[in-house]
């Protein structure tokens, strides 16, 4: 299907020019009293603006064009926040002559009930403004991990052993509910240990941090996840290892978990024969977990009155819950969004529960690879034996990767590769510097945004003769030859202003091109001549002569 590149400039400029802070119409002609009385002078509504933006000069909009443009913003037609719009669209199209085309009036009718969300989307106000380009990078990372063939599919129960090692899917959901999926993202798989953070979050949400941690520690254990071992206070080390997760299961109620999943609007395959089989298999192969359970019972790790064997059953059932990458990405996004589900707007978990959960995922979420993962990827994550990885980029998005082949430490081979590549490309690592590290991409900003700021800062420093600012820019590996919209460089500006020190710094320390031409064909020497800065003229001339004699050729001149 064709991708329509909607030009939103009209939309943005009309809207921002409409009013200044005093509420007065600035750029539009003032309405006459007669116009006001007859109501013939009306500022375009948000619905009108959206129509103009999508229609691109046409009188009508084919519905698929609107839907394609909507998809490019990251919103899905199935998003519950767009229900009214989609229902009205369906009804409206039934009554049109061709079943496809919407005129302005019909279009407005369809979008009006969700106009705030739609306006945000089309004005690129979501956390990932350029969602299409971001998604295509994700697809590239997905493709490169697809080629990996290492790893073993878990086979301790038949329900896991049946999976093909070719299965591979990645879904993401941002805190604004923008969604993207690639690969086998509709295929159900068991949450297994990926359910541990959710269980813990529900426990803290229901009982508070203090209560939960009177039963469970917060330290990485340094031991295998299913080790029969407690900390020096005879408590499980943390909720991400089996012992801690079993105690967590004793603190929560079936009702709370069900409610959380429902609020998340997550499709989960919890009932019927499927879960019964998986649960039975888990239980039959769960000797180690029984051993842990009995040991913890002896050590009084459970709240008084706990029936340990039913807690274990609940633990096995929770491991056996099936999700898809698509549905689980909403859970991960809820953790990224401080506990509010991005697509329903409902608070599912308290901010305290989410913060605790992310901290523990960060330090203990990836089995015996947790330290390395925190070092290389720097993001909270939890993996499971079915090959799932729940990855959270706090305040930005949740990502779920799934591929059954596991490495020796029990993490999905393709999943780990994807997470590592993700932070190689984007500055999502917790300790990536968002202000100065220019080599990684920041999808939170519009492509041009960062560049424009950097050109302005550079040219302004050249204009004011601030060599120390320019030195800082050069040290942070900013391109010192950047041009503004008139193709003018810092050297043009410094030469025109007669700042000899700046000119010397740019030529000698930064080795910038001494003869760039701006859009009118002027070089820095032309500027210095025009404004009578003879000292600058001689610096530039000497530099050019020196360079042409030293390497025997003229310095390159950019067109
Ligand atoms: N059901 C598995 C167990 O309790 C979960 C394993 C995992 O995903 O880490 O041992």
Can I get a quick summary?
By secondary structure, the chain is α+β, with helices and mostly antiparallel strands. 49% of the residues lie in helices and 6% in strands. It has three domains: 33-122, Recoverin, domain 1 (Orthogonal Bundle); 133-425, DD-peptidase/beta-lactamase superfamily (Beta-lactamase, 3-Layer(aba) Sandwich); 448-551, Alpha Horseshoe (Serine Threonine Protein Phosphatase 5, Tetratricopeptide repeat).
Largest sheet: 5 strands, antiparallel
Beta strand %: 5-15%
Continuous helix count: 26
Q: Which topology of the largest domain does CATH recognise?
A: Beta-lactamase
Task: Please compute the radius of gyration using only Cα atoms.
Answer: 30 Å
Number of strands: 9
Helicity level, as a percent range? 40-55%
Provide the structure class.
alpha+beta
The name of the CATH architecture of the largest domain is 3-Layer(aba) Sandwich
Task: Compute the number of structural domains.
Answer: 3
Task: Determine the mean pLDDT.
Answer: 88
- The end-to-end distance, rounded to whole angstroms, is 39 Å
Assembly context of the chains: single chain
Shape: globular
What CATH first level of the largest domain would be assigned?
A: Alpha Beta
The CATH homology group name of the largest domain:
DD-peptidase/beta-lactamase superfamily
Bound molecules: glutamic acid
Low-confidence stretches: 1-32, 552-559
């Amino acid at each position: 299907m064709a991708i329509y590149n909607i030009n939103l400039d009209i939309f943005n400029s009309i809207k921002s020019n409409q009013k200044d802070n005093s509420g007065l119409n600035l750029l539009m002609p003032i309405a006459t009293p007669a116009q006001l009385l007859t109501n013939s002078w009306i500022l375009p509504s948000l619905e009108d603006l959206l129509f103009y933006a999508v229609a691109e000069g046409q009188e009508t909009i084919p519905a698929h064009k609107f839907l394609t443009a909507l998809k490019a913003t990251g919103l899905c037609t199935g998003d519950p926040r767009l229900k009214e719009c989609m229902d009205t669209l369906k009804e409206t199209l039934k009554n049109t002559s061709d079943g496809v085309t919407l005129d302005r009036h019909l279009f407005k009718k369809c979008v009006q009930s969700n106009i705030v969300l739609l306006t945000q989307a089309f004005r690129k106000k979501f956390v990932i403004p350029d969602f299409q380009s971001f998604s295509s990078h994700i697809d590239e990372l997905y493709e490169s991990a697809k080629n990996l063939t290492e790893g073993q599919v878990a086979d301790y129960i038949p329900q896991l052993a049946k999976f093909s090692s070719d299965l591979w899917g990645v879904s993401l959901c941002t805190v604004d509910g923008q969604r993207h999926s690639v690969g086998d993202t509709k295929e159900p798989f068991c949450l297994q240990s990926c359910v541990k953070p959710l269980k813990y979050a529900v426990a803290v949400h229901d009982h508070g941090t203090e209560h939960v941690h009177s039963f469970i520690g917060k330290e990485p254990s340094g031991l295998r996840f299913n080790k029969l071992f407690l900390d020096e206070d005879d408590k499980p080390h943390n909720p991400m290892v089996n012992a801690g997760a079993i105690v967590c299961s004793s603190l929560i109620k079936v009702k709370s978990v069900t409610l959380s999943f429902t609020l998340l609007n997550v499709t989960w395959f919890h009932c019927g024969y499927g879960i019964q089989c998986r649960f039975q298999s888990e239980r039959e192969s769960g000797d180690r977990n029984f051993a842990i359970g009995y040991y913890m019972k002896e050590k009084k790790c459970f709240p008084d009155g706990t029936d340990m064997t039913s807690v274990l059953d609940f633990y096995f059932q929770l491991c056996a819950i099936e999700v898809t990458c698509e549905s689980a990405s909403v859970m991960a996004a809820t953790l990224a969004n401080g506990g509010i589900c991005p697509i329903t707007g409902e608070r599912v978990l308290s901010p305290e529960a989410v913060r605790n959960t992310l901290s523990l995922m960060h330090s203990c979420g990836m089995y015996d690879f947790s330290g390395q993962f925190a070092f290389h990827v720097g993001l909270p994550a939890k993996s499971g034996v079915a090959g799932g990885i729940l990855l959270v980029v706090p305040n930005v998005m949740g990502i779920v990767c799934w591929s059954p082949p596991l490495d020796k430490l029990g993490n999905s081979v393709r999943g780990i590769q994807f997470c590592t590549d993700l932070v190689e490309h984007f500055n999502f690592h917790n300790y990536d510097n968002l202000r100065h590290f220019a080599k990684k991409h920041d999808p939170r900003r519009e492509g041009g945004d960062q560049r424009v700021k950097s050109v302005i800062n550079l040219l302004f420093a050249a204009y004011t003769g601030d060599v120390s600012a320019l030195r800082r820019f050069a040290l942070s590996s900013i391109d010192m030859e950047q041009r503004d919209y008139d193709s003018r460089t810092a050297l043009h500006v410094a030469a025109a202003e007669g700042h000899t020190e700046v000119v010397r710094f740019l030529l000698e320390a930064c080795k910038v091109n001494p003869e760039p031409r701006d859009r009118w064909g002027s070089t820095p020497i032309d500027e210095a001549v025009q404004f009578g800065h003879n000292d600058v003229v001689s610096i530039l001339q000497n530099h050019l002569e020196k360079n042409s004699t030293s390497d025997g050729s003229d310095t390159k001149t950019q067109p």
